[in-house]
Amino acid sequence: MTLDQLPEIAPPQKPSQLTQPPLDSWRSPKLDYDLAIVGGGIVGLTLACALKDSGLRVALIEAQSLEQAAARRQAYALSLLSGRIFEGIGVWPQISPNITHFQRVRLSDADYPKVVEFRPEDLKTEAVYYGAEHSVLITALQNCVRQCGTVNFLCPARLISVDYQPQAVQLKIEMAGQVQTLRAQLMAAADGARSRIRQQAGIRTVGWKYWQSCITAVLKPEKPHQNIAYERFWPNGPFAILPIPHNRCQIVWTVPHTKAETILALPSDQFLAELSRHYGNQMGSLTLVSQPRLFQVQLMQSNCYVRPRLALIGDAAHCCHPVGGQGLNMGIRDAAVLAQVLQTGFEQGEDIGELHLLKRYERWRRRENWLVLGFTDFLNRCFSNTFLPLVILRRLGIQILQTIPPLKRLMLRLMTGFLGRIPDLARHSVEK
Ligand SMILES: Cc1cc2nc3c(=O)[nH]c(=O)nc-3n(C[C@H](O)[C@H](O)[C@H](O)COP(=O)(O)OP(=O)(O)OC[C@H]3O[C@@H](n4cnc5c(N)ncnc54)[C@H](O)[C@@H]3O)c2cc1C
């Protein structure tokens, strides 16, 4: 039976080997769950998987069927820390053979011949970054949740209303044409950038829409991509090439809105000719594997990540420019940190929906996310600028970065997630 056919919302069974909290008195037997996660994208699934052995009773509510959720044709630059988190969860053996391990990341400024080249040796790791397709990540996480006795995966099921009460949060969900009610101590909103939960809770955001859009497409180059990724900055915006398995590459091409629509309307041969001007000829001729798609890009940060009985994670809490491939990686870290805070609180007998406990998650993640949001915004603005003194300065910066290893390492640690505080889930594999 697939999860789409689940007939009704039933509280999950609790396997006997799960650890029990020392104090159980706060836990109302009237509640169906300890935690309800809304949104079974990669971030929501990561949170559910991270809590699989915690003893918490979890409901995961996802509006799309498993197949629809996995069908998104997108690839991500996955950071080393995200890889460690997946290793800690136990899904890495399913993911690792089906992704690329970047052996070089080359950062350059338009036609300027000097480049910054990041290599695994810089951090003494097996790769600089990974190139992973959405379907590979989400399928591994979906399978993990489906095998887990403490998570009830309600899918497809859509949240329709929420009622925040002093001791619980009550959710009305629609599943298989029926409206059902469930109560939990805490709701985690992982419902994406346009989070209705965030809006309905009245949580305000700061940020802006960029003057640029992003075109993405998957290509097959004539020559082997050799697991080399490129981030090339043009005056119109950054242009990234991510190597993915079976000698394919995903491009993330940032251009101003009007130009993006013109490019997207081009016939395939002209699209590829325009693309080659930015892509270069290092991999020979190109063939389109997927239809090019257009994305709007924005910077957004929520004024707070938590309220009593509510925590925001992933794109529901923040969004950034795709330059440097950070958005999903931030969300995966949010999920690992929230899981750690909840598990610690649960083991100490605390109410996991209380604000003072949730604030530990907010204090940890919001500041770190600001750093990444600021850095991606700086990169995009600085390199999309043709003001000559700035061009000279940033080209000097490229040379300095390439020749001073500690500086290069610092930037790499920021991009790969190792500059912040490392969640316990990733710590074991980092210390190996
Ligand atoms: C062009 C582009 C390139 C990018 N490249 C990278 C990259 O290389 N690396 C990187 O780290 N990030 C990248 N990102 C960012 C990344 O795509 C996002 O940060 C990430 O997908 C967010 O995941 P999420 O799980 O938070 O949200 P989503 O993927 O949006 O998932 C939200 C889920 O919630 C469900 N949902 C919504 N409402 C309800 C409801 N009422 N009831 C039940 N379910 C609901 C939806 O069905 C969905 O499955 C890129 C973004 C863009 C636009």
Low-confidence stretches: 1-26
By CATH, the architecture of the domain at 3-75 and 135-206 and 299-383 and 417-431 is named: 3-Layer(bba) Sandwich
CATH fold label of the domain at 3-75 and 135-206 and 299-383 and 417-431: FAD/NAD(P)-binding domain
Largest sheet: 9 strands, mixed
Mean pLDDT: 90
Assign an overall shape: globular
* Small molecules bound: flavin-adenine dinucleotide
How big is the Rg?
22 Å
Strand content: 25-35%
Structural class: alpha+beta
| Name of the CATH homologous superfamily of the domain at 3-75 and 135-206 and 299-383 and 417-431 | FAD/NAD(P)-binding domain
Q: Which CATH first-tier class of the domain at 3-75 and 135-206 and 299-383 and 417-431 would you pick?
A: Alpha Beta
